[in-house]
Specification:
CATH superfamily of the largest domain in chain A: P-loop containing nucleotide triphosphate hydrolases
CATH superfamily of chain B: Cobalamin-binding domain
CATH class of the largest domain in chain A: Alpha Beta
Number of strands of chain B: 5
CATH class of chain B: Alpha Beta
Bound molecules: cobalamin, guanosine-5'-diphosphate, magnesium ion
Order of helices and strands of chain A: HHHEHEEEHEHEHHEHEHHHH
Structural class of chain A: alpha/beta
Largest interface: A-B, 48 and 39 residues
CATH architecture of chain B: 3-Layer(aba) Sandwich
Number of helices of chain A: 13
CATH topology of the largest domain in chain A: Rossmann fold
Helix content of chain A: 40-55%
Strand content of chain B: 15-25%
Structural class of chain B: alpha/beta
Distance between the termini of chain B: 53 Å
Strand content of chain A: 5-15%
Low-confidence stretches of chain B: 1-13, 143-153
Number of domains of chain B: 1
Low-confidence stretches of chain A: none
Strand order of the largest sheet of chain B: 2-1-3-4-5
Order of helices and strands of chain B: EHEHEHEHEHH
Largest sheet of chain A: 7 strands, parallel
Helix content of chain B: 25-40%
CATH architecture of the largest domain in chain A: 3-Layer(aba) Sandwich
Number of helices of chain B: 6
Distance between the termini of chain A: 50 Å
Radius of gyration of chain A: 22 Å
Strand order of the largest sheet of chain A: 4-2-5-1-6-7-8
CATH topology of chain B: Rossmann fold
Shape of chain A: globular
Mean pLDDT of chain A: 88
Mean pLDDT of chain B: 87
Radius of gyration of chain B: 17 Å
Largest sheet of chain B: 5 strands, parallel
Number of strands of chain A: 8
Oligomer: heterodimer
């Protein structure tokens, strides 16, 4: 790929060309050789946008909320990155978040649906890259929606400046959220579907859990919303803004972003190592350790040890 | 039981999944077929961007651009296909997109040739099997074209 064409793509994307931005996102989504170049190029212009993560159980109303948020933000060019799981069996996915957003957002909102795809941990690299590209294209805020189940998805949503955790009325939800590790990552709680009975009960449950678990300067506020009607979305946006200014004044923003960058490097190394190792292993055959595992001659544990030792010599033994 | 452990780590060279935008154009509440097609395509390993009911050519073009879609799939049951389908093809061309339009639903036999002539890539009707649906969508884009592989155009 010639650098000029890439520069042109970035320039068009920055000027608001949806198609150029769509193309760039595909490149980082694939995480092929182009992705590194695109990521590198995006890095130069990124770092400006507010990144908001929205997570919670499937069906809790994340997409509806996200679309509404983009609308009330009053931003010139908000972006939404909506992530849904790929089927582990077929690799396919139904990405249905746009249905809940399209009617509420303006045409200046850029929405991209992203499937988790097969590559383990790939999401941990593809999502920051996609955010970086959106940022470099001048989008702000960038709202990332992920299903709040599974470690990777929660981590991805938590890798935002502000993380919003959505629960719905009913005793089970707050408890589930607690189990999934969502409570620790929440900067703001939303009790959505407040039109249903016992939204206040859900708020009380959350307050109790916060009383027990809360530490630090920022206590996560709880906002009641009825996203389908747009109720409470203004309040939610105010809380997001309040959190943004807290991040700035407390120095927490710098701390978070540093952490995020560090962990992205670690994620990339992990993924790169894995890819390279698998490529080498796939190229081997016959008497290789993998071949012997397949024939049940060698245990997976022993094979992995052998292959690792061959790939990367272990530290010299300490005396 | 087989002695083979079947270790086949996700290949690094797996082809990227086709990305298909599915929508109903205009006022037409028949979305059952579209939902069936969405699941069929997902089960064939494709990524379906489901827009659902009441879309316009503009909203579909916008979604295609943002999602970098490979195919547009429309489901039509309101006898508006002779107007709406060519309008969709035209909107795609006007946006300078290289995305084929595949149609399913209620299209009388004598209209199929008219739609193909208007630039529609394929037309399927009631009773189309999962295999036929998948084959039509797979055949629609020419993914080998250098145009799609490289951003340089
Ligand atoms: C179920 C149904 C309904 C349901 C719809 C429920 C829903 N949410 O979808 C209800 C009861 C609501 C309904 C209402 C009406 N209906 Co109706 N309905 C049907 C019926 C009986 C079956 C449609 C269906 O779901 N089939 C099952 C699915 C799986 O099949 P399919 O949609 O054809 O999809 C397959 C293929 O076509 C293809 N395909 C479809 N889309 C796509 C897209 C792509 C990309 C691809 C690759 C393939 C593909 O793959 C699918 C799998 O094989 C048909 C009759 C029929 N035999 O088709 C009439 C029919 C479609 N309805 C009709 C009419 C007139 C109406 C009403 C106007 C009736 C009225 N006067 O009230 C209303 C309008 C509603 C509205 N708002 O638009 C007419 C349409 C006539 C026409 N187009 O010329 C039909 C043909 C009945 C008839 N013979 O007159 N309807
Ligand atoms: N009653 C009620 N339903 C809602 C509310 N918000 C969203 N929904 C519905 O809940 C369903 C799931 O919403 P969606 O935004 O797709 O949830 P997601 O899976 O978390 O993204 C949809 O049918 C919405 O219309 C709400 O505040 N009240
Ligand atoms: Mg959603």
């Amino acid at each position: 790929m010639s650098p000029t064409s890439l520069d042109e793509l970035f320039e068009s994307a920055r000027a608001g060309n949806r198609r150029a931005l769509g193309r760039l996102l595909t490149m980082v989504e694939r995480q092929d050789d182009n992705a590194v170049i695109v990521s590198e190029r995006a890095h130069r212009d990124a770092g400006q946008a507010r990144v908001i993560g929205v997570t919670g159980a499937p069906g809790s109303g994340k997409s509806t909320i996200t679309g509404r948020l983009a609308a009330v933000s009053g931003a010139a060019r908000p972006a939404i990155l909506a992530i849904d799981p790929s089927s582990p069996l077929t690799g396919g996915a139904i990405l249905g978040d746009r249905i809940r957003m399209d009617n509420n957002v303006s045409s200046s909102t850029f929405i991209r649906s992203m499937a988790t795809r097969g590559h383990a941990g790939g999401l941990a690299v593809a999502v920051p890259d996609a955010v970086r590209v959106l940022d470099a294209a001048g989008c702000d805020p960038i709202i990332v929606e992920t299903v709040g189940v599974g470690q990777v998805e929660v981590t991805v949503a938590a890798a935002a400046d502000t993380t919003v955790v959505v629960v719905t009325p009913g005793w089970g939800d707050a408890v589930q959220a607690n189990k999934a590790g969502l409570l620790e990552v929440a900067d703001i709680f939303v009790v959505n579907k407040a039109d249903r009975p016992d939204a206040r009960g859900a708020r009380r449950d959350l307050e109790l859990m916060l009383d027990l678990g809360h530490r630090g300067e920022w206590r996560a506020p709880i906002v009641l919303t009825t996203a389908t009607e747009g109720e409470g979305i203004d309040d939610l946006w105010s809380e997001i803004e309040r959190h943004t200014s807290f991040l700035h004044h407390s120095g927490e923003l710098i701390r978070r972003r540093c952490l995020r960058r560090r962990s992205e490097v670690a994620d990339r190394i992990e993924l790169g190592l894995r890819d390279r190792a698998l490529r080498i292993i796939e190229a081997q055959s016959g008497e290789s350790a993998m071949g012997r595992v397949e024939r049940h001659e060698l245990s997976p544990a022993a094979a992995a040890e052998q292959l690792l030792a061959a790939l990367i010599p272990d530290n010299p033994p300490e005396e | 039981m087989s002695e083979t452990l079947g270790i086949s780590p996700q290949s690094v060279d797996d082809p990227e999944p086709l990305r298909v935008v599915l929508a109903k154009l205009g006022f037409d509440g028949h979305d059952r077929g579209l939902k069936v097609v969405a699941r069929t395509l997902r089960d064939a390993g494709m990524e379906v961007i489901y827009l659902g009911l009441r879309q316009t050519t503009d909203s579909i073009v916008a979604a295609c651009e943002q999602e970098d879609a490979d195919v547009i799939g429309l489901s039509m049951h309101n006898a508006g296909h002779l107007t709406l389908a060519p309008r969709m093809v035209q909107a795609v061309e006007e946006a300078d997109l290289d995305v084929p339009v595949v149609i399913g639903g209620i299209v009388p036999a004598e209209d199929v040739a008219v739609l193909i002539e208007a630039g529609v890539a394929a037309v399927l009707g009631p009773g189309a099997s999962a295999e036929e649906v998948v084959a039509a969508v797979r055949a629609a884009p020419n993914r080998q074209s250098p145009d799609h592989q490289s951003p340089a155009r």
